[in-house]
C-alpha cells in the first residue's frame, strides 16, 4: 500500500498554487501524480511535461521512493526571454512504500510527459485461499 509523505506537503502545494514563489497568483502544481492499484501492482503516474528523460532519477531506499526531475529554460542562443511562467528547476517527490510492496521489481516508463511507475505487490501480501477442514476430517488425519 502506498502511504502519504509529509503531511505539510499539501499545505506547501496549496500555498505555492495560490501565492506562487514570488507572491503573485499561480496555478502551477510542480509534480502532480495519480496512484491506483491495478491487479497485483500499484501504478503511480507523475506529470512531467517538457522534462528530458535523461534528467529523471528514481531511487528507492528503505521503502522510500524518490523521484527527481529537472526542467531547464531552453531559449538557446541570444534569445531574450519575454515571459517565463512555466515552472523550471529541479522537482522532487517522495513516497513511502508499505511493506506489502516489492521494491526490487519496480519498472518505470516515460511517455508523452508522463512518468509511470509500476510497483508489484509482494507475494506474502496477495490474497490467498485457506482450506477449511471439518472436525471429522481432522480426526481421520490425526487418530
Please outline the helices and strands.
Layout: E1 2-3, H1 9-19, E2 33-38, E3 41-47, E4 57-61, E5 64-71, E6 89-97, E7 107-111, E8 114-120, H2 135-141
Antiparallel strand pairs: 1-6, 2-3, 3-8, 4-5, 5-6, 7-8
Describe this structure in words.
This protein is mainly beta. 13% of the residues lie in helices and 34% in strands. It is built from two helices and eight strands; from the N terminus they run E-H-E-E-E-E-E-E-E-H. The chain is elongated and about 85 Å long.
Structure, briefly:
This protein has 143 residues and is mainly beta.
Radius of gyration: 23 Å
How much β-strand is present in the residues?
A: 25-35%
Question: Stretches where pLDDT falls below 50 for ≥5 residues?
Answer: 22-29
Query: How are the strands of the largest sheet arranged?
Result: 1-6-5-4
- First-last Cα distance: 44 Å
Q: Report the principal-axis shape.
A: elongated
At CATH level 3, the topology is: Immunoglobulin-like
Order of helices and strands: EHEEEEEEEH
Helix content: 10-25%
Amino acid at each position: 500500500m502506498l502511504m502519504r509523505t509529509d503531511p505539510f506537503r499539501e499545505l506547501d502545494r496549496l500555498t505555492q498554487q495560490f501565492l506562487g514563489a514570488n507572491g503573485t497568483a499561480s496555478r502551477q502544481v510542480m509534480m502532480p501524480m495519480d496512484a491506483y492499484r491495478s491487479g497485483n501492482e500499484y501504478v503511480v503516474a507523475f506529470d512531467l511535461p517538457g522534462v528530458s528523460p535523461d534528467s529523471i532519477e528514481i531511487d528507492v531506499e528503505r521503502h522510500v521512493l524518490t523521484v527527481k526531475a529537472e526542467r531547464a529554460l531552453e531559449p538557446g542562443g541570444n534569445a531574450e526571454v519575454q515571459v517565463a511562467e512555466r515552472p523550471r528547476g529541479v522537482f522532487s517527490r517522495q513516497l513511502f512504500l508499505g511493506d506489502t510492496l516489492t521494491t526490487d521489481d519496480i519498472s518505470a516508463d516515460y511517455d508523452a510527459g508522463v512518468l509511470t511507475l509500476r510497483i508489484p505487490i509482494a507475494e506474502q501480501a496477495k490474497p490467498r485461499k485457506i482450506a477449511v477442514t471439518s472436525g471429522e476430517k481432522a480426526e481421520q488425519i490425526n487418530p
